[in-house]
Amino acid sequence: MGSLSSRVLRGRASPARGDGAAGDGGGRGGKRKRSGAEGPGDSDSDSEAEREERLLNTPRRKKLKSTFKYIYQTLFLNGENSDIKICALGEEWNLHKSGYFSSMFSGSWKESNMNVIELEIPDQNIDIEALQVAFGSLYRDDVLIKPSRVVALLAAACMLQLDGLIQRCGETMKETINAKTVCGYYNSAETYGLDSVKKKCLEWLLNNLMTHQSVELFKELSINLMKQLISSSNLFVMQVEMDVYTALKKWMFLQLVPSWNGSLKQLLAEADAWFAKRIKDFEGDVAFLESEQGSAFLPVFAHLRLPYIVSDLASARIVERDSLIPPEWLSSVYKQQWFAMLRAEQDNDIGPQELNEEEMEGNSMRCGRKLAKDGDYCWRWTGFNFGFDLLVTYTNRYIIFKRNTLNQPCSGSVSLQPRRNIAFRLRLASFDSSGKIICSRATGYQILTFEKDQEQVVMNLDSRLLIFPLYVCCNFLYTSPQKKTEAQELVTFECLSSYVRYQTSHQLSEVTGSEGRAGSKGFLSVGLMESSN
Length: 533
Hints:
single chain; 3 domains; five-stranded antiparallel sheet; 17 helices; disordered N terminus; BTB/POZ_dom; spermatogenesis; Gcl-like; Germ cell-less protein-like 1 isoform B; differentiation
């Protein structure tokens, strides 16, 4: 509290010493007189200085312990010796110019000679309770912050520039991130400049958006925030990229129909039916994202990694049927994939030969799987991967990759090239009930070379860190990076041109816009061993 605390300490210390001298010292002095008359065998042999030291030190320690309680009760709650009144939101606080307010009431501030100050509260997050706690924090050394009140208190602390209280609010927010608080915390952190809280919220969302989906979370995620999540290579994808598309479809439906209150199991069917009805109302070959209602979502869908969706026939058919994505986008991706296949087949492309983290971040295949309990698992992720049939095995705390060519049946074509490369990153994580990571492991980006039917251990897990369910997430590149002028720039151009075209159309006309199910499991268990899933 600074000078305010010092003044109170000095004011309280004198009575304590006076009470001790007049009460305890006086009483004992009388007894010592009588004892002294009895002779030199008196048991009380302590010196006067030692007794005085005990009398002074013991009560002083007790008083220090309760000093802030005294300050809070006497000066803040009771308003004793107040020399300034703060008025805000119809309430009054009798405070003190010393300490926190000393700079405001000194020098050339216009408030220097004022005894009553009216505070304007432009921030709607601030209420009377938040101001009460914020002002009270000036008179005590601890503050009890409820997670349900932390945003309002943070707003008040930022307005009053209480750095210590701002820091405590940030710590509380980081400790209590969950599905109900994460979006509100993220928005508040962005508003009030708490970058560390914003980063923690984004990490939580990247880990939980796909692993722990919920209707409530989909409703709260803004377009800008969802765009950040979908564009990130750190998105913890479960199954395959098609499941990211499906999640976006459900999210977009809830953004457009926020009053829907069904369960997560019902959500996809409802979204499919709703979009199908809107598409029927459109005239001509118009995708939903090209409509007035859908154009706002174009920047989010533009970050889908479409090459890994159209590489699976069932997924490609669903995307075509849904008619959400503009046909120009899909045409560009089909062309891109066709050239990639020709390079792999006719140009003997053996896969990535140099590690390009930028390429991995922006264009890698994202896939994952949940291992419900400890056991033996073997699976492959669905889709055509240019003749590289990758089998993934979890057994005896090992994660093993195998390039299958002749040992196991495969539904698609298999490359018989002597060697093939893949670039990958493997991540494993376990979560608690609030979505926080309990334990995690990661390989970092690597390139492995496989001969035909060769297998390699990619991770050896410590049994002490194994907590199930265990979530496995991978990023892969199977082919050498294409030149951006050949593929990515074409897709990006189509995405941007579609967005600009239909935004412009919306501005120039007053035409009102009218208002699919991913059946793929995303992976196939392989009959090398019985799956425990």
